[in-house]
Automatic annotation (TrEMBL), chains A, B:
Segments of this protein annotated with the region Disordered: 338-376
Name of the protein described by the UniProt record: LacI family transcriptional regulator
Lineage of source species: Bacteria, Bacillati, Actinomycetota, Actinomycetes, Micromonosporales
Signal sequence extent: none
Alphabetical UniProt keywords: DNA-binding, Transcription, Transcription regulation
Source organism per UniProt: Micromonospora endolithica
One MF term in the entry's GO annotations: transcription cis-regulatory region binding
Domain of life: Bacteria
DNA sequence: CGCGATGCTGCAAACCTTTGCAGCCGAAGT
DNA sequence: ACTTCGGCTGCAAAGGTTTGCAGCATCGCG
């Protein structure tokens, strides 16, 4: 039913190759002919079949974006940035969600492999070795994880964690908890490592709780454990968990930040909407999306993996060029952190009280401390 | 570089057609042969090229999902539901975001057309006629809009709006504002229509503000206008706008719900996290996603639009079977609505006061009123 | 007038699969 | 012993496009 290139050729009295060129190499065809072809194409509602084209050129002009959890507000800015960057280069982005499931991740890479020119693997939960293996099937750029030999873009959560911990230590906190993220998360490991050294260096004591699902309910479920741990400050794997934790503490009668200081990571927009507004480590998600698309497109425009185009030669050599980019993070201080309680512990028996002054806190400019930046 | 069916055939000493059948019709090939072929395929890391397969079968086992704004928390549950439903039927979902841009919408449909078996068009902003035209290019299911002759799944926002307005009128509100949504939104028109008749029937007066971008900033930008309108209650096009409006009113010194009652639409999870918790019309987004996938798959499994499979006959006749489903909505009463102020107007000069009792409101079961349900 | 260059178009192979048809072989039925 | 049948496999066309190569005029130049 849909018009093919042949229909157009017949209608305009030229060979199919001329029709093809009209679309893919207009300068090679006589303007007059081209006009006639275009008219017929328009008339018949012809659109090139991208699948057929991909079959021979080896390039689909699509890129796949695999996301751990689309419901996490952390991702949409990244997705949008990737899409707009891709659109500028005449590419389309197909997003797929894995529900934090490593199996689904692998399956999706396979499914996408032949339908896209490359895949952006965002916050993968699978093993490094599997990622490496999959990268032989389709060009991969990894986001939020470092895998040796593959192009990666990560956030410098290590620096962000240090900044957060120093902020808390400066405020007099000594007993600090870390709510870690999901099993398999590179970011979570980085945070944990950095938190460990930073707290120790500051003479504090770190309690690690987890692994946990990186969601709001994952956070609220930890309120009881946080109370029992007797800490005065908490760093959460992400904002969602931090917000959930605040909810949970609230239900337990513990006030934030008077009794417990809470800091999140990501700086999702939601973190500015809750009460108290969340102190958090801002990660440049949009930049990550853009960068990842750039790396992917540069990486495979260099060596077109075309069907005919004479397969790329160096399988090992071009690893030299695979970049690993790490993006700067920033600590944004808002209303969920305060000086440690005088007795050095949160009060175990908080009475019910009208909400504290943070409710009235003005919209003043948030304090900002910068983290590090690295690239290689 | 990637292994093709021919490589496997050579390696296992059979014809390519046997390899093909090993995967697509296993019962037609001798178990012994099949075993050998599978072994070789595994060995070589062979994966069928879905693009090539699609070229001949006419079915890609992909479905496209076009979304107005992926950053709107309304959509993720719909996306996830669609994905899981599709996965059960061995389909993959590709999500694309249009940034509320009608042009991008059209372009995406074209881009997806040949790479998917059908497209779910969610909250489209383009014209009905264009949608109808595009539906001749690829099977379409429309979500959040009714288009004659096309399968649609919508939410009964009309009933939800009526319930919300009755709730407000019962609470003594008479001057009510409606924050309408983006231009081109079917839902927004439905809400406006229903709001008009409901408020008039209740002896109230409706002020319509809009159209507006359906975002948090879109809502907060309207605070000033809402104040000037002198209304005591507001229904917003969606929760995001409602939450933004509450922020904006707060900045103006107007308290919700004491001075102004606010109700949203959608019941996104965020609406339970803000203070005050939002009264809102819950829409069954997950059900919508599932239903839409079902309608699409049923619709085109009936008549395979295969290349060879003898094109479908009835172009008009099968319209009889195109269903239009409308899903039930529910009014969820939380803390952002209250009785109208005694003087019938919000106080124009609110003093700064410690936050009201809604801060302490327990997690009690929300009151629920049911809306209608329709199907044809 | 001849020659090469230039601009445009047609030809046909190739991309990777699926699938209708035909062929082969052994077994079962008559 | 001859047919029939069934199970399995091979053959080749088809699907829609791109692209290197070759052919053909036309044109400019010497």
């Amino acid at each position: 039913m849909p018009a093919t290139i042949r229909d157009v050729a017949r209608a305009s009295g030229v060979h199919i190759s001329t029709v093809s060129r009209t679309f893919s190499a207009p300068h090679l065809v006589n303007p007059e002919t081209r006009g006639r072809v275009l008219a017929c194409a328009e008339e018949l509602g012809y659109r090139p079949n991208r699948a057929a084209r991909a079959l021979i050129t080896g390039r689909t002009h699509n890129i796949g974006l695999i996301i751990a959890d689309i419901a996490n507000p952390f991702f949409p800015p990244l997705i949008k940035a990737a899409e707009s960057q891709a659109r500028q280069r005449d590419y389309h982005v197909f997003v797929a969600d894995t529900n934090e499931d490593p199996i689904a991740e692998e399956e999706l890479v396979h499914a996408l492999a032949k339908q896209v020119d490359g895949v952006l693997l965002c916050s993968p939960r699978m093993s490094n070795s599997l990622i490496e293996q999959l990268s032989r099937e389709v060009p991969l750029v990894v986001i939020n994880r470092q895998v040796a030999g593959l192009p990666c873009v990560t956030m410098d959560v290590g620096q962000g964690t240090r900044a957060a911990m120093e902020h808390l230590l400066d405020a007099g906190h000594r007993r600090i908890a870390l709510l870690s993220g999901p099993r398999g998360s590179w970011t979570s490991r980085e945070i944990r490592r950095a938190a460990g050294v930073a707290v120790r260096a500051g003479g504090g004591e770190l309690t690690v709780l987890g692994p946990n699902p990186p969601t709001e309910t994952g956070g609220s479920a930890l309120a009881e454990q946080v109370r029992r741990a007797g800490v005065t400050a908490v760093l959460a794997y992400n904002d969602l968990m931090a917000i959930g934790l605040i909810e949970g503490l609230d239900a337990l009668g513990l006030r934030v930040p008077q009794d417990v200081s809470v800091v999140g990571i990501d700086d999702i927009t939601l973190s500015r909407l809750t009460r108290p507004k969340l102190t958090t480590v801002a990660t440049p998600t949009a930049a990550a999306g853009r960068t990842a698309v750039d790396m992917l497109l540069q990486h495979d425009s260099v060596a077109t993996r075309g069907a005919r185009g004479g397969g790329r030669s160096g399988t090992i050599d071009d690893r030299r060029t695979t970049a690993q980019v790490m993006l700067r993070t920033e600590l944004v201080i808002r209303d969920s952190t305060a000086a440690a309680p005088a007795d050095g512990r949160h009060r175990p028996d908080a009475e019910v009280v009208a909400p504290g002054p943070h409710r009235l806190a003005g919209p003043g400019r948030p304090t900002v401390a910068t983290g590090g930046v690295v690239a290689s």
